[in-house]
Design goal:
It contains 5 helices and 13 strands. By secondary structure, it is of the alpha+beta class. It has 2 domains: 5-104, Transcriptional coactivator/pterin dehydratase (Gyrase A, domain 2), CATH 3.30.1360.20; 111-214, Roll (2,3-Dihydroxybiphenyl 1,2-Dioxygenase, domain 1), CATH 3.10.180. The strands form 2 sheets. The chain has an 8-stranded mixed sheet with strand order 7-8-9-6-10-13-12-11, with helices on one face. Strands 1, 2, 3, 4 and 5 form a 5-stranded antiparallel sheet that branches. Helix 2 packs antiparallel against helix 3.
């Protein structure tokens, strides 16, 4: 089945937000939802109906079946972006879930990235690709099976021995970002930098270790 050129057009974050079904979130270049199945067999049965629909539509999601929930992520891999094909399949999956009596969570699950600050990513990137068995591409190394978090390398002009090298980037649904930030502050953290908000906020724990809360907004 050939793919219409219009179906290869990358959707913006705002288009995805406007068109995606309830419970689906745009997160790290994917459309993601988690369905509360309640038990493993219900989830397995839902995976089967999703697979049949995906074959008919010639477009296939990534699924992660656990007890008691099912996580589904969509991206058009040929263009490395979310397209209208993903929106259509998301709607179909939501319909199948509703038929099975399964509801999505209010927002899609968070996605975790690991980041390492370095003045010379080309020097250290091959090591991390080799030790993890990851593929090196651009500013990151990633698991080709998409099982484990990617590691990306953030350029820094500091080579001080006591600089923080590792930090976490936690990508969340934009609806929950401010609540997550406030929860971190209430837990003893501080807001270090909101200059790039709502794309990301930099926070630190009481010892000064930094992490970022990220959303899709401001990235198109």
């Amino acid at each position: 089945m050939s793919i219409d050129e219009a179906d290869k057009e990358r959707l913006t974050g705002q288009q995805i937000r406007d068109e995606a079904p309830d419970g689906w979130s745009y997160n790290l270049n994917k459309l993601i939802a988690r369905f509360e199945t309640g038990d493993f067999n219900t989830g397995a049965a839902l995976v089967g109906t999703i697979a049949e629909a995906a074959d008919r539509m010639n477009h296939h999601p990534d699924v992660d079946l656990r007890y008691p929930h099912l996580t589904v992520s969509l991206m058009s891999h040929d263009v490395d972006a979310v397209t209208a094909r993903d929106i259509r399949l998301a709607r179909k999956i939501s319909d199948l879930a509703a038929d099975a009596g399964v509801s999505p969570t209010t927002t899609g699950p968070d996605v975790l990235e690991l980041a390492i600050d370095t003045p010379d990513q080309e020097k250290i990137k091959p090591f991390w690709a080799a030790i993890l068995g990851y593929d090196a591409e651009g500013d990151a190394v990633s698991d080709s099976a998409d099982r484990n978090p990617p590691i990306w390398f953030q350029s820094t002009d500091s080579d001080a021995p006591d600089r923080q090298r590792w930090h976490l980037d936690v990508s969340v649904s934009h609806e929950v970002a401010e609540a997550r930030i406030q929860a971190a502050i209430d837990a003893g953290g501080t807001l270090v930098d909101d200059g790039a908000a709502p794309s990301f906020w930099v926070l630190a724990d009481p010892d000064g270790n930094k992490a970022c809360i990220c959303t899709w907004q401001g990235r198109d």
